[in-house]
Amino acid sequence: MAIEQHRDVESGDATRLQGLHEPFIQPEEASACEEVESDRTIAENGAIGMVLLSTLVAVCGSFTFGTCVGYSAPTQAAIREDLNLSLAEFSMFGSLVTIGAMLGAMTSGKISDFIGRKGAMRISTGFCITGWLAVFFSKSSYSLDLGRFSTGYGIGIISYVVPVYIAEIAPKNLRGGLATTNQLLIVTGASASFLIGSVINWRQLALVGLVPCICLLVGLCFIPESPRWLAKVGREKEFQLALSSLRGKDVDISHEAAEIMDYIETLESLPKTKLLDLFQSKYVRSLVIGVGLMVCQQSVGINGIGFYTAETFVAAGLSSGKAGTIAYACMQVPFTILGAILMDRSGRRPLIMVSASGTFLGCFLAGIAFFLRDQSLLLELVPTLAVTGVLIYVAAFAIGMGPVPWVIMSEIFPINVKGTAGSLVVLLNWLGAWIVSFTFNFLMDWSSPGTLFLYAGCSLLTILFVAKLVPETKGKTLEEIQACISS
């Protein structure tokens, strides 16, 4: 399972990670004067209908991603009761989605290169459907875990191929806005699981998870394959037809088609990098920043608090976790949108430092609530304080700690190592997600206030790390960023 498996997006290393998190970073594109004419032609002809339809279909996969991630939060108590699961067994169930996603992410590059972006989305949907059905029919922890792992593998592929597909089909003047929908639909899917799971049982919620999968499968029949992938594999006639379908029959695509072909030739001429190449002195600082940001993102505990929200609220003294879970779900989407708006206005570093300050405050307040509960002090304030802390935490995370590390990562690596470096960083991110989601219940059982204070401490370390090592990338070309990192 070589890390190099992830190489390629717009036919190579260059746009793979840029596509994954490009919604908020386009300074280098703005300066590309030769592309303005092409973009203006597309906009004037209004030939974006197929692009919008294709994006809408693709983000059904993003919604599936979100529903999988959000599934365990509202269902923990019911699943444990119905299937008589221990805390350890449910923790394994909750965390298996991240193990599957790690494997899915590691193989997604090869799969999407071999059978295309649409083919990869079909494969991922098949795994998700199989997983949801296994969960629905589960009578024991074995089939439950198998289903969770299968959905995890499916969303691991989705996490790569959906944003890549969107980045490859969108005209440059629309790419930022369209790519933003990927992240927004992930958060929306998670919130939908939280909300729907609060009013139906866990088996019914598994069936609900099938809906976006079916929508994606049906929708794929009506949208074109990625033109860039078709060009890469030498299917020139289909490449021309797909690009014409996306841009409109009356739009001259010759300039864009020539650019794509030239870019593919340029990328294929670059030397292929291996994992060990990343540890050369000229890449070390970028690697430290990319890996460090992902460690910081996961170490503040988002996958623990997010996966087991309902039980956390119950442990704090609420009679039911439903109200808190609903509030949690309602906070995610608007603050994710706000973070997208602020990304290119406030800058990356200030936004992530403010966000980390918010996660610190949220964890600290929730930790105080659990401390007061353990000491039997001010018990009437404990539930309110805990809910307030968690809601501050999720709002703060959504506005910065969630999206910003991915954006910075997509900007800091030189073009010739982006594929390999990005694969390593994505893999480590999923590994961190698994560690946090698997250990959360055990840590909370050991010491609830201690666990939350630990996450609060990690938030402070994040602020320090960003202040000392992470450069500001707002408004800089990729070449200027490289010069800043190398200086």
Automatic annotation (TrEMBL):
Domain Major facilitator superfamily (MFS) profile as annotated: residue spans: 54-474
UniProt subcellular location: Membrane
Sequence segments annotated as region (Disordered): 1-20
Residue ranges with Basic and acidic residues bias: 1-10
A single Gene Ontology CC term: membrane
PROSITE patterns referenced in this protein's UniProt entry, alphabetically: MFS, SUGAR_TRANSPORT_1
Lineage: superkingdom: Eukaryota
Keywords, alphabetical: Membrane, Sugar transport, Transmembrane, Transmembrane helix, Transport
MF (Gene Ontology): sugar transmembrane transporter activity
InterPro entries per UniProt: MFS_dom, MFS_ERD6/Tret1-like, MFS_sugar_transport-like, MFS_trans_sf, MFS_Trehalose_Transporter, Sugar/inositol_transpt, Sugar_transporter_CS
NCBIfam families: SP (TIGR00879)
Family membership noted in the UniProt record: Belongs to the major facilitator superfamily. Sugar transporter (TC 2.A.1.1) family.
Protein's name in the database: Major facilitator superfamily (MFS) profile domain-containing protein
Organism: Sphenostylis stenocarpa
